[in-house]
Design goal:
Strand content: 15-25%
Largest sheet: 6 strands, mixed
Strand order of the largest sheet: 4-5-13-10-11-12
Helix content: 25-40%
Radius of gyration: 22 Å
Distance between the termini: 61 Å
Number of strands: 13
Low-confidence stretches: none
Number of helices: 14
Mean pLDDT: 95
Order of helices and strands: EEEEEHEHEHEHEHHEHEHHEHHEHHH
Bound molecules: ligand F0G
Length: about 400
């Protein structure tokens, strides 16, 4: 297989791996050529490196067995379509970022880099720290202080990254870490790095591998806008290879308080106007100036998809419903995909017989503080059976019922 980096703006082609953006400032795409496919889309042995013949690396991968995440058919949520949820929260670090990091960190090793760095709303840093640990590289992280879910910070710290909180937002952290990488020679692992997106495109491959066909729509949360671009690229490649006939409509979901892509799509624009003070409970997608906006808008327009915005209340409800009705535990940003699907249905935009895949991007355990805000803390009682029964019956039936009566039919 041959590959090169191609600028999405001026189309300039580079036969080198050590750049992130074009000289003109445009985003780069990896162009894969002459691939000799050595896998079958038979639903077996799923993981990122099953698709190695379409991944642009030259050395053995740094891997923690990422990918191969379950695609659940969801019947309990009351949505008028054939709904599947792909649970990317079951990757090694608990988010889809691992697919990108296994390729990105492998590239760092290939390029003989000794240190990697990123700005992050949390998941990227957790994943990068994990893969850097595996590869024996130093890891540096810039986070928006006080705005990153606890589980994610815990991961980055425990896997040995140097974590710096800046008194600012993600967009500022990203702009700063790009300067640090330029000056210090660290390898930048944000999604502006085209090799990271190559790993993430395997989400598309896996969906087709598991379903046996291409769905009608893929719905996912959009923050820095890398993942929607990557998944679209994956489908596009499969179509170019003749492995599927059609590409799903790509639906980007944003929070109302961090919605630059949504606004651009509503206005039919090819660029975004930044949101300078993004705010949402879904801190993973609390981003006002997505670096991959141009790629994401291209993915949405070319696939005849769209973007929707959802409120924090809608996100919280979707998170609770997905967890309590389908047994799928996700973090708030991921639940935005379900909230977004509900919005599309409300707008009458979805046909009953459509197959829709929502991407659950990150695990419930990432953000335990939100869970307590939504569900409240467990009720505490004295170690006494009467006290326990009192709580059980009051909470289950709203009134006190003698235990013998109330248990009938509950536990046959
Ligand atoms: N969902 C989760 C759980 C995320 O962590 C992110 C991004 C997204 C969705 C959005 O993906 O940026 O490719 O559009 N998190 C990044 C981070 C920004 O730093 O962890 P995107």
């Amino acid at each position: 297989m041959q590959y090169s980096l191609v600028c999405i703006e001026c189309k300039r082609e580079y036969k080198r791996d050590d750049i992130y953006v074009c000289e003109c400032g445009g985003l780069l795409d990896v162009k894969i050529e002459d691939a000799e496919i050595d896998f079958k889309l038979d639903g077996r042995d799923l993981w990122v490196w099953k698709y190695r013949s379409l991944l642009p690396v030259r050395i053995d991968p740094v891997t923690l067995k990422e990918g191969g995440t379950p695609l659940y058919r969801c019947n309990n949520l009351d949505v008028e379509c054939r709904l599947y949820v792909k649970h990317e929260g079951l990757n090694p670090s608990g988010s889809f970022k691992d697919r990108g990091m296994t390729v990105g960190v492998t590239k760092a090793v290939e390029l003989n880099k000794k240190a990697v760095a990123c700005a992050s709303t949390g998941n990227t840093s957790a994943s990068m720290a994990m893969y850097a640990a595996k590869a024996g590289l130093k890891a540096y992280v810039l986070l928006p202080s006080g705005k990153v879910a606890l589980g994610k910070v815990a991961q980055a710290l425990m896997h040995g990254a140097k974590v710096i909180g800046i008194r600012g937002n993600f967009d500022q952290a990203l702009s700063l870490v790009r300067k640090v990488c330029d000056e210090q020679g660290f390898y930048l692992l944000n999604s502006i790095n085209p090799f990271r997106l190559e790993g993430q495109k395997t989400i598309a491959y896996e969906i087709v591998d598991e379903l046996g066909f291409s769905p009608d729509r893929v719905v996912l949360p959009v923050g820095n806008a890398g993942n929607i671009s990557a998944i679209y690229k994956g489908f596009k490649e499969l179509r170019e290879l003749g492995l599927i006939d059609s590409i799903p409509k790509m639906i980007g979901v944003q929070a109302e308080g961090a919605n630059p892509i949504y606004k651009a799509v509503m206005e039919g624009k090819n660029h975004i106007d930044p949101v300078f003070n993004p705010e949402t409970i879904a801190t993973a997608i609390r981003i006002g100036q997505p670096v991959n906006a141009k790629k994401a808008l291209r993915a949405i327009y070319e696939s005849k998809g769209t973007a929707v915005q959802v409120s924090d209340e809608e996100i919280k409800k979707a998170q609770k419903d997905l967890a309590s009705m389908e047994g799928i535990g996700v973090e708030p940003a991921s639940a935005a995909s379900i909230a977004g699907l509900r919005k599309l249905i409300e707008m009458g935009d979805i046909e009953r017989d459509e197959t829709v895949v929502c991407i659950a991007t990150g695990n419930l355990l990432k953000d335990p503080e939100i869970v307590l805000r939504i569900c409240g803390k467990p009720i505490e009682v004295e170690p006494n059976i009467d006290e326990i029964l009192k709580v059980l019956y009051v909470s289950d039936f709203g009134k006190l019922i003698p235990p013998s009566d109330s248990l009938e039919g509950v536990h046959p």
